[in-house]
Amino acid sequence: MLNLRRFYTFEPRRLEKIRKSIVPFPQFRKPSDPITPFTQLFSRSASRSPLIFDRGLKRLQRERASKSASFSAYEYLRQEIADRLSERLLDFRRSFRRALDVGAGASNIRRALVRNKLGFGLELLFEIELSQAMLEYGSRRLPLAETPFRTLQVVADEENFLPQLELSGALSGGLFDLAISCMSLHWVNDLPGTLAQIRAALEPGGVFLGAMLGGETLHELRVSLQLAEETILGGVGAHVSPMIEFRDAAGLLSQSGFTLITIDIDTILVPYPDMVTLMRHLQGMAENNALSRRRPWLSRQVLEHAAEIYRDQFQLSKSQMKSTLASSNEPLPENGEDWIGATFQVVYMVGWTP
């Protein structure tokens, strides 16, 4: 299995602390029929959001990936980010009793909390995930009975999870004091609506802690495919998803009613032997293309030309490869001087409820 800790190369962490006046939380008109406050919170936002991503396709991708016998070999990115995100709980001088995990994936946060012994004081973790198979895989890797805190799971779309949360009875014990989202929000069409739901599920003084992929992610792959298609086809298609710029994350949190916002980023450079291997790994971890208006296929000619461009423009130097392996004291792999690099920019977010 690929050990991602070998491949970290960080740019200096940029930290932006934004303290703005609290944006009033949207109050929607109550319909004539009885309806819960949580259901009406996002009804207007969801109907106006452009459908950039095919959520049905993304669910199928997660189902297929998690049912694959080799899925554990492709968990390295999500596992590492879950570890880094959960470790940030140490920055808070308090413990949390009730936590909500939005987009739980294969229970990566739960597994990270147990693995790193960071679940102290936690009484309940409620996991929400689009794919049933993902939750089942996570439960096989770490059975619920072996988790030191109570864990409940529900299958629901991150874009519309509050009704399911209420129907499940999760709110009968009160609101949550912590909400976490790891590597899920960059596939959401209505990001402001999802953040508003997270805000609504938190009690006053609650904390939201999130990590999602940012705009510099896979820029090498995007450029290579665009240049190859422009050369061969005379036009370009959409193959790499648009992602949030870290400068915009603070504004979205503020608009959703969060305050005392902190945004920072990590840039991770992961080496791969070639572009085809990179694309296979993206598919294996269910991070492959799910755009609504995607081009359904790539010709062999385009792929081969894109792979050539990728290697010409983004091949890692010998010193870069050595630096990625320095922490593990491992030798260069075979043909290690001919590998390419893929960038994953991770945007970390912290927001408090007033």
From TrEMBL:
It comes from the Eukaryota. Keywords: Methyltransferase, Transferase, Ubiquinone. InterPro entries: Malonyl-ACP_OMT (IPR050602), SAM-dependent_MTases_sf (IPR029063). CDD domains: AdoMet_MTases. GO terms for molecular function: methyltransferase activity. GO terms for biological process: methylation; mitochondrial respiratory chain complex I assembly. GO terms for cellular component: mitochondrion. This is NADH dehydrogenase [ubiquinone] 1 alpha subcomplex assembly factor 5.
